[in-house]
Amino acid sequence: RKEVEQDPGPFNVPEGATVAFNCTYSNSASQSFFWYRQDCRKEPKLLMSVYSSGNEDGRFTAQLNRASQYISLLIRDSKLSDSATYLCVVSLSGNTGKLIFGQGTTLQVKP
Amino acid sequence: GAVVSQHPSRVICKSGTSVKIECRSLDFQATTMFWYRQFPKQSLMLMATSNEGSKATYEQGVEKDKFLINHASLTLSTLTVTSAHPEDSSFYICSARDYGQAGNSPLHFGNGTRLTVT
């Protein structure tokens, strides 16, 4: 079983749509959670951290359910520029900084 | 914001040669840097953790004699792919955390190195 699992997609949605991505992680000792965005052939870039209480950044909302070991990302009012691969990332306990990446979910927003 | 510079961004080499990739933290100090590898349509996989002034910690299945890591200063880590083969062709990415930030703060990524071994 993968440590971080995501549906690879692709998700093809029209502009303005709302789309949700899910992610599950296997290690209950995981401490920190992030969503990164990766454009084709580029390095990943931090989209947002995910907090237990849930958090929102503009059109993006992230949720964490520790009991179910489940993370989600909601994108509202999709833009063409949102087209990318979204990586669910988990950091294990301790100060190691070691990140475990999911395979990524590809989003394609169409006009 | 913090910047991590990785060089070269792209390299093509012949089978059997060695390639060195540099990762620099430009405006912060990093006692620890991380080296990842990403094959097409796959997730980033951690190869090793580079520790300033000491030996790197390699993940299971990563050959330490093939992927040499040196972290001689607080701002520079290098990864050398020795005796490269076509199967080593991949996207190599380094990342680092600001020494002064908490352990769960996000990492800063370099722009990656696309290695092609012919």
What does this structure look like?
The complex is a heterodimer of chains A (111) and B (118). Chain A is 0% helix and 54% strand. In chain A, strands 2, 4, 5, 9, 10 and 11 form a six-stranded mixed β-sheet that branches. Chain A has a five-stranded antiparallel β-sheet with strand order 1-3-8-7-6, with no helix packed on it. Chain A has strands spanning 4-6, 11-14, 19-25, 32-38, 44-50, 55-57, 60-65, 70-75, 84-91, 99-101, 105-110. Chain A contains no helices and eleven strands. Chain A is globular, with a radius of gyration of 13 Å. With 111 residues, chain A is mainly β. Chain B is an all-beta fold. Helices cover 0% and strands 49% of the residues of chain B. Chain B contains no helices and eleven strands. Chain B has strands at 4-7, 10-13, 19-25, 32-38, 45-51, 57-58, 67-73, 76-81, 90-96, 108-109, 113-117. In chain B, strands 2, 4, 5, 6, 9, 10 and 11 form a seven-stranded mixed β-sheet that branches. In chain B, strand 4 (32-38) and strand 5 (45-51) form a beta hairpin. The radius of gyration of chain B is 14 Å and the shape is globular. Chain B starts with a strand and ends with a strand. In chain B, 36% of the residues are buried. The A-B interface holds A 4, 8, 31-32, 34, 41-46, 49, 87, 91, 94-104 and B 32, 34, 36, 41-46, 49, 91, 93, 95, 97, 103-104, 106-107, 109-112, 114.
